[in-house]
Amino acid sequence: xxxLQVGELAKKLNKDTSEIIxxxxxxxxxxxxxxxxxxxxxxLIAADYxxxxxxxxxxxxxxFENYEVVxxxxxxxxxxxxxxxxxxxxxxxxxxxxxxxNTKVTAGEAGGITQHIGAYQITNxxxxxxxxxxxxxxxxxxxxxxxxxxxxxxxxxxxxxxGVMPQTVEAINHAKAAEVPIIVxxxxxxxxxxxxxxxxxxxxxxxxxxxxxxxxxxxxxxxxIKGDGIDDLLEMINLVSEVEELKANPNRTAAGTVIEAQLxxxxxxxxxxxxxxxxxxxxxxxxxxxxxGRVRAMVNDLGRRVKSVGPSTPVEITGLNDVPQAGDxxxxxxxxxxxxxxxxxxxxxxxxxxxxxxxxxxxDDLFNQI
Length: 370
Ligand code: GTP
Ligand code: MG
What we know:
Belongs to the TRAFAC class translation factor GTPase superfamily. Classic translation factor GTPase family. IF-2 subfamily. The protein is α+β, with helices and mostly antiparallel strands and 370 residues long. The protein is built from 10 helices and 19 strands. A hairpin with a 3-residue loop joins strand 11 and strand 12. The longest helix is centred in the C-terminal third of the chain and has 34 residues. Guanosine-5'-triphosphate binds next to helix 5.
C-alpha cells in the first residue's frame, strides 16, 4: 500500500485536514478528506513540511516463523548430522562427550581444544558430526517448546550397571515425540557389574528392540572412561545420518536456531547459533529472536575466528543489540534495512510482552506465596 487518504496523511503529519486540503489545492489537486493520494502527492506535501517519507514495510512475521524455507531439491547438499546425548543422571553423558571430543578434536588441532561454545564438530572418516553439548533434555524441552528442532540423532546413554532409570524413559519419550532416531550407547562396560543384556531387556519394554534381537534399534557397547567403543558409536552415527539423508541448501541466506546466549562484559551480547540452512557470513544483517544487528565477528568451536559457516555448523556471534534466548530462530536478511525493521518490530513486541508478563508474574508470585 503506497497510497494514503488525505485524513490519514494529515494525522501522520500532525496537521489539520483542512490545511492539507488547502495545500493540495495549491498543487492543483482538488481533494476531499477520504481521497486516496498517490505516492507522488504524498511526497510533495511531505516535502513542503520538510518531512522525509519512509515507506512502511509491512513486516511479514510468517516469513520469519517459517524460516525453514522450502528449497529446490537440486540445491540441497548433504550436511553433517546434529547429535545430542541424553540419559539418566550419572550414566556418563559428559564423560562420553569428552571421550568423543578428546579422541577426535585434539588430533591435528594445535594447542588442543579450548571449548568456547556449547557445541562442537568432529570429523570421523572424513565425515563431520556436530554434537550439542547442552544437556540433552534442555535441548529438547526448551527448544521444542518453542517450536525449534535442532537434533537429528539422539544418543541414549544407559549405564550397563544401572539399567533403565526414570530419566532414561523421559529421554526416550522426548526423542520419540520429536521423531528423532535413537542410538543406544550402553556405557560403563568396564565395570564388574555391567549387564548389557539387562539393558536390552529393559529397553524392549519401551519399544527399543536391539538389532541383535530382531528389532531395528542400534545398540553400541562403550566405556566412556576407557574410550572403548567410541569409534563404533561414531560409525553408527554416520550410518544413521546416511539413512536419514540429511540435507540443506548452503547457497542461500542463513537461518537456524540459538543454542545459548549470554551477556559478556567485554563483547556484549554473545550468542551460539546453529546454522541449519544457508551460509552465515561476517557482516550479515540478522534477526535473532527479538534481537537484531549485523554479525560483527564469528568464532567456531575451536575458538578460531571464521568468516563464513555452512549448514549444521555451530558458531558464536557478536553484534546483536540484546541477548536472545536458547531456541530462538534466527534469519539473515539480504537487505539490512529490512533486517532492522523486522528486528525493531520484534524487539518492541517482545518488550511490550515482557512488561505485561512481568506484571503477571508478580501476581503469580504473590499467589504462590499465599
Ligand atoms: P549428569 O550430567 O549429572 O547427568 O551425569 P552424566 O550423565 O554426565 O555422567 P558423568 O559423565 O558425569 O559420569 C558420572 C560418573 O560416572 C563419573 O564419576 C564418571 O567418571 C563415571 N563414568 C562415566 N562413564 C564411565 C565409564 O565408562 N566407566 C566407568 N567405570 N565410570 C564411568
Ligand atoms: Mg553431565
